[in-house]
Every structure is written in C-alpha cells, then in structure tokens.
C-alpha cells in the first residue's frame, strides 16, 4: 500500500521514464501533493493500466500543490550519458515547481543534491510513496504523448506502441531503415552496433 512520507516539511516526489529506451527523451516529473491527498487508483505507473494512467494524470495535475515535467533529449543524453541525463531531467522538473520543496523523495538509488534541499533515494519508491508514484505517472504519460507525436513522423518504428523501447520490432526497423534524429547514438541500438549507418537520411 502506498503511503505518505511523514514529515512536517513540504515533500516533493520525483521519478523518470524512458531511461532504457533506444529513441526519444528521458522524461522526469516532480510532484508536491497536498497533505490530505488520497486516490485509490494511484500506483507505480508500471503497474497501472493505460486507462487508469490517463485518469490519474488529470487528477494529479488538478489536485497537486504543484508539479513540473521536463524532457532531456537525445543529443544531451549522448553527451552526458543516460544516468546524468536522468538526474538532470529530475532537477529540471523540480526547478519547474512553483513552490520549492523542503525535502525530495527520489525513485532509485542515485541522485545529485538539488541546491540545498535534502533528499532521500528510495529503491522502488514508485511502489512505496504517493508523491513518487504521482511523479511516475506524470513522467510516463508525458513521455508517451511525446513518442506518439513523433510516431507520426516516423511510423515505421511504431513508437506509438513500443514508445522507443528495444523491442524486436523496433530493432528490426532500425536494421531496415537506419536511425533517425530521435535515436540515441550512444546506445547499443543493434547487436552489430559498429555496422550501423549513423549517416542515415533520417
């Protein structure tokens, strides 16, 4: 059962989506919930149906004290690596909060201090704390919406379905059509990575 982080401080949860993808941004959200927030459907985004995620997105954005969402795109991921890009996305999401939190709950085990705000890293925190679960929902839904949008530009990769993750279908499309401006060149896109044409017309 998800719980609130018991503190007299204002606490924001943060999480990211898309870290393991071959294409598209890594997206993070930060959410500061009201102290009395309760919603039965709220859970880790990976355990929540598409229908319920979309319901939750509306409810979280309507009822949160404040929230922020940020994308870090492919060129920056390739330049600083995916771990640093994930942390940067979380920092940028926190920066967008209209109220600076006094404490931050981070999903996972790696983070860099944000300004002078204290933080805790919580492994599998999106299944433990409401604010992290809320951030996971917003990160996932905002990133999915971005991938569905760019799917229209390159439908052969079927990003509206696989969202850029390394499915067999996605890798087969990379092998057939090459890469696009949305692919992460620093990632192992195919087993025969060295043979991949980075001068793709896309």
From TrEMBL:
At the top level, the lineage of the source is Bacteria
UniProt xrefs under CDD domains: RNase_HII_bacteria_HII_like (cd07182)
Predominant place of localization: cytoplasm
> Record's SUPFAM superfamilies?
Ribonuclease H-like
Instruction: Provide the cofactor note recorded for this chain's UniProt entry.
Output: Manganese or magnesium. Binds 1 divalent metal ion per monomer in the absence of substrate. May bind a second metal ion after substrate binding.
Residues noted as binding a divalent metal cation in the record, renumbered to the chain: 15-16, 107
Q: Name one Pfam family in it.
A: RNase_HII
Keywords (alphabetical) are: Cytoplasm, Endonuclease, Hydrolase, Manganese, Metal-binding, Nuclease
Domain RNase H type-2, chain residue ranges per copy: 9-199
Catalyzed chemical reaction(s): Endonucleolytic cleavage to 5'-phosphomonoester
Which GO molecular function annotations are given, in alphabetical order?
Answer: RNA-DNA hybrid ribonuclease activity
Q: Which cofactor(s) are needed, names only?
A: Mn(2+); Mg(2+)
Entry EC number(s): 3.1.26.4
Where in or outside the cell is it found?
Cytoplasm
Q: Which NCBIfam families match?
A: PRK00015.1-3
Family the UniProt entry places it in = Belongs to the RNase HII family.
* Protein name (Swiss-Prot/TrEMBL): Ribonuclease HII
Q: Which organism is it from?
A: Autumnicola patrickiae
């Amino acid at each position: 059962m998800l719980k609130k982080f018991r503190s007299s401080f204002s606490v924001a949860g943060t999480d990211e989506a898309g870290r393991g993808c071959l294409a598209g941004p890594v997206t993070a959200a930060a959410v500061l919930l009201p102290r009395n927030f309760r919603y039965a459907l709220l859970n880790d985004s990976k355990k929540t149906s598409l229908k319920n995620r979309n319901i939750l997105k509306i409810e979280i954005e309507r009822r949160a004290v404040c929230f922020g969402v940020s994308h870090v795109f492919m060129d920056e991921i390739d330049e600083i690596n995916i771990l640093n890009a994930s942390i940067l996305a979380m920092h940028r999401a926190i920066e967008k909060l209209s109220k600076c939190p006094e404490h931050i709950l981070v999903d996972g085990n790696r983070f860099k201090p944000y300004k002078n705000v204290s933080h805790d890293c919580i492994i599998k925190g999106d299944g433990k704390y409401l604010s992290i679960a809320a951030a996971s929902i917003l990160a996932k839904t905002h990133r999915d919406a971005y991938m569905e949008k760019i799917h229209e530009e390159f439908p052969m990769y079927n990003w509206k379905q696989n969202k850029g993750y390394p499915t067999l279908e996605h890798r087969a499309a990379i092998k057939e059509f090459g890469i696009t401006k949305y692919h992460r060149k620093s990632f192992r896109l195919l087993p025969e990575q060295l043979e991949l044409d980075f001068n793709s017309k896309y």
